[in-house]
Design brief:
The complex is a heterodimer.
Chain A lengths: L2 H12 L4 H10 L13 H11 L6 E2 L1 H11 L6 H10 L7 E2 H11 L4 H14 L3 H15 L9 H15 L5 H12 L5 H13 L15 H13 L3
Antiparallel strand pairs in A: 1-2
Helix pairs in contact in A: 1-2, 3-6, 5-6, 8-9, 8-11, 9-10, 10-12
Chain B lengths: L20 H19 L8 H13 L3 H24 L3 H25 L1 H11 L4 H14 L2 H19 L6 H13 L2 H30 L2 H22 L4 H15 L2 H5 L6 H6 L3 H12 L4 H22 L7 H21 L5 H15 L5 H16 L5 H17 L3 H17 L6 H15 L1 H28 L7 E8 L1 E3 L13 E8 L16 H17 L13 E8 L2 E8 H9 L5 E3 H8 L3 H12 L7 E4 L10 E4 L9 E3 L10 H30 L1 E3 H11 L8 H13 L3 E3 L6 E4 L2
Parallel strand pairs in B: 1-3, 5-9
Antiparallel strand pairs in B: 1-2, 2-3, 4-5, 6-8, 7-8, 10-12, 11-12
Helix pairs in contact in B: 1-2, 1-3, 2-3, 2-5, 3-6, 4-6, 4-8, 7-9, 8-9, 9-11, 10-11, 10-14, 15-16, 15-17, 16-17, 16-18, 18-20, 19-21, 20-22, 21-22, 27-28, 27-29
Classes of the chains: A mainly alpha, B mainly alpha.
Amino acid sequence: MSTYEKIATECLKKTNWALEPAINHFYSSGLATTPGASSLNLKSIEDLYSSYKEKDGDTIQAEGVVRFCEDLDLDPSDIVMLIISYYMGAAVMCEFSKEEFTGGMVKMGCDSLDKLKKKIPDLRSEIRNEERFKDIYAFAYGFSCEKGQKCIQLDVALGMWKLLIGETKPWPLLEDWCEFLLKHHNRAISKDTWVQLYDFIQTIKPDFSNFDETAAWPYLLDEFVDHVKEKRGG
Amino acid sequence: MSKRVGQIKIEPFRHPVSMDPNYAEKTWSLLENAIKEIHNQNASGLSFEELYRNAYNMVLHKYGERLYRGLQQTLTDQLGVIAKKVESFQGEPFLEELKRRWDLHIKSSQMVRDILMYMDRTFVTQQQKTPVYQLGLELWRNTVVRNPNIKDRLHAILLDFVLKERNGEVVRKGLFKNITQMLVDLGHAVYVEDFEVQFLKSSSDFYKKEAQELLSTCSCHDYLVKAEKRLIEEVERVKSYLDASTENKVTKVVETEMILNQMKTLVEMENSGLVPMLRDDKYDDLSRMYQLLRRVEGGAALIRTVMSDHIKEVGKQLVQDPEKTKDPVEYVQKLLDERDKYDRIVTQAFNDDKTFRAALNQAFESFVNLNNRSPEYISLFIDDQLRRGLKGMSDTDVEVVLDKVMCLFRYLQEKDFFEKYYKLHLSKRLLSGKPVAEEAERGLLVKLKTECGYQFTSKLEGMFTDIKTSRDMMMEFRAKMAGQVGAGASTSSPSSSSAAAVAGPSHETAAPNIDLQVQVLTTGSWPTQAACCCNLPREVERCCEDFKDFYLGTHSGRKLTWQTNMGTADLRVEFGTKRHELNVSTYQMCILMLFNDVDQLTYREIALATEIPAADLKRSLQSLALIKGKNILRKDPQSKDISETDIFCFNDKFTSKLFKVKVGTVTAQKEGETEKQETRQRVEGDRNPEIDAAIVRIMKSRKLLDHNNVVTEVTRQLASRFLPNPAVIKKRIESLIEREFLERDPDNRMMFRYLA
C-alpha cells in the first residue's frame, strides 16, 4: 500500500468509515499539513499514547505527563513542554486527550520518542520566531486557565510570564510588572490584559517615552506606567 | 427787357472774418488787466458785458488756447503776490490774513469764471482742460497753501491751536473753522493730506503722553472719568471746527492711546482696578469701565476674564474654608448671596451682557464642584427652607428663593449625589408628622423635572403619592375602627412596602385608647433602610395587627413590614400629680412603656425586652436620660455614656414648663464622616451600571467606534447625572469586553466592536 493509501485508510478507520468526518480528521490532525506526514507510522503514535494514558479513561493525566517528560529528559516546567502542548492544542494543562496527543505528534512530524527528542532543539528555537511566539503566547492564556474558568489566577499568570517572557524575550520591566501586580492588583488577569501586554512589550520603550495614555491600553497597563514613573521619582 | 431773368443769389459772405493776431493780443491784454484788477478788488470799474464779449470773441476766433494759457499765467502771478503778502504776517493775524485772502480769491475766481464762461463751456470741455473755477482753486492750493514758506507755518499754528485747547485754553474756534473749511473746499484729499494726517499724529502723541501721566497719578476711577471726558471733548471739537469725517478717526486715536494700550494696567490696578470695584459694588465705575472698554477690541473680553478669575478665586476660598463649610445652610446661603451680588453687577453695570452672564455661570460651576459636599448641602438648605424658613414668606418670595437654588443646582456636576440626599431628606420631611409645605414641595419637583427629566423625579413623586394614598386609607380605616378605638395619643410611623404605625396608649387606662396613623410606603420609591424590628408594647401590637388585617384585606398579595425606626409616638404620662404629653420616637415609646409595669430596669433587661438594635438603643436612652431638663428616666450611675451595666428608673420628679414636651426628633442632619463615605461609595457604585448601559447603548448604534469617541459620547450622555471619570469608563469597557459585550479590534487596539 502506498503511504497515501495508508493515511487514508487510517483516517477512515478512525471515523468508522464515514467519509466526511474522515476528511475532517485528516485536516485537523495535521496529517494534511505536516511534510512527511505520509511517512509517519500512525500506529506507533497510538501505541505511544496508550503507554501514557490513564488506565481507566482515555486521556493522559498528570502522572502520564510526568512520565512523558522524564522519557524526553525534559523538566515539566521547561518551555518546550509548553510548545509541545501548543502543537497538541491541549485545552488544559497536564491533560492530553487522544486527539490532542496524536494530532500534536503528527504536526511535529514525530512518531517515536527518539524522533521527538531530536526535535526538541528545533522546537526550542521556534520560540524565537516572532509569529510563532505570538501564537504560543496567546495559546498560553487559555491553556493556563483552570478547567471551566475564563480567567487565570495571578500566580499562574506570573509564572507563565516569567517562563515565556523571561526566558525568550528579555523585557527589562518584567520584575517591576510582577511586583506591581502582586502589590496592587492581586486578582485574576483578564484575557484582554494578557494579550495587550504582548503588544505593550513590543511597542513601548522602557522609558515610556512613546507611551500615549489616550491610546486605549488596558487600565492595568496605565496604572503600571504610573507606578513605575512614581518609583523612578518622575 | 425780360428775356433772361437773372438769378439773383444771395450768397454768404465768403471771405472768413479772422481775427487779426494783433487784435487777439490786444484783447488778451484787456482781459489780463481786468483779471488783475479783479484780484485787486477793483472790479467795480469794469464792464461785464465787454469782458465777456472779448473772451467770447477770442474763443470764437480760435484763440482759446492763448486765453487759457494767459489765464493760467496771470493767476499764478497774482497768487504769488498774494502769497508773499500773507507770508509776512505772524501768528493769529497770519491765519486771519490767509482767510481774508481766501475769501477774496473765491469772489475773484467767481468773477473770472463768469467772464470766461464761454470758454469754460466750449474750449475747456473740448480740450478737456480744468474748468476755470477749479483751476483757480488748484492754483491757490499750489501757490499759496503749499507755498514752502506758508505750508509748515500753517501746520504748526493749527496744531498749536488744538494743543492749546486741549490744555484748557480758550481759542478762536471760528477762525480755525474757516481755515479747515478752506481746505475742505479745496478738495477733501487736500484736507486729509495737508491737515488731517498731521492732526491725527499729533493727537496720538498727545494722548500717549497724557495716558502715561494719568496712569502714574490717578486712580482707575479718575482715569476713566478723564478718558470719558476726552472722548466727548474730541467729538465736540470736530463738530466745532473740523470736518465731520475726522470724527471717527480721532475717536479711534483716543480709544487706542488711552484705552486699548492701557487697559490691562488699568484693570489690574491694585487698589482701584476692576477687582476692588467688583468687591465694593461700584456700579457706576464698573458701568463706565464697561462702556469705555467695549469700544476697543478685546476690551470687554478682558473685563470678562478678570471678573471670571476673581469670582473663581472668591468662590474657591468660600468652598474650601473649613469655617465656612461647617454649617450647610450658611454655606449655601453664602453661595446664593455671592451669586446675587454678581448677578446684580452684570445686570446693572454690564448692561445684562449675555457673554458676561455666561462667564459668571461658568465661574460658579467651576468652584461649586470643588467641594464635594455641595450636593448634600444644597439639599439640606432646601430641607431647611421647606421645613421652617418658608413661614411668613409669600408665594412669590418662595418661588424666587427656589429659583435661585435651582441655579445653584444647575452648577452641580454630581447631580446623582444630590438626588440621593434629596430623597433622604424628603422622606424625613414627609414622615415627620409635621405639616408639609405642599405647594412649595410640588413646585420644586416641577422645577427639577424640567431640569433633569422625568426619570429624576418619578420616585420622588411616588413618595408624595404614597403619603396621599395613606391619608385616604387612614380615613377608611378609622371609619372601620370607629367605636373600637378611643381617643388617645396619636402616632405615626412609616414602613417599607408597608406602613408602620405606632400608637401611644394613655398611661391611665388599661384598655387601649390608641389613635393609630399609618403611612404605607412603596419600597422602590423611598430611600432604602435596613429593616429593623423591635418588640412593640402589646397594646400597640394589637392595633398594628388590626391595621395589617384591614390592609391585606383590600390589597392581597402585598407584604407589609413595620419600620419601627422611623415612627413617632405621643404619650400621655403622669409624673406624680402632673401630667405631660411627650412626643417621642417609636423606640423610646417601647422603652417607656416598659416602665408601666416596673419602676426600675437594667440596660440588659431593656435590651432584652425591646430587642432594639444596640446603637439605636443607646441613642434613645441618651435622649431620655441624659438631656438636661428633659430626663424622663434617671440613670444610675450618673455617667455621660450609656454602658451595659446601667440601671434606669422612672423619674417622677420630671418637670417642664410646657405641657407638650418633645424628646429627640428625627430631622435631617448633616452626615457624619463614616456615613458620608458610605453614601459616596454607594452612589459611585450605582454609577457603574449607568456607565455600562450608556456604553452598550452607544456601541449598539455605532457598531464600531474608537476609544476616545466612546469616552466622549458616554460623558455627553451622562452629563445631566454626573461627570464620569475617563479612567472609570475605561475599566467598564474592559469589564464589558470580559463579559463579551464588546471586543477589541485585533488590528487596532483603539477600536471596539459591538458583539450582538
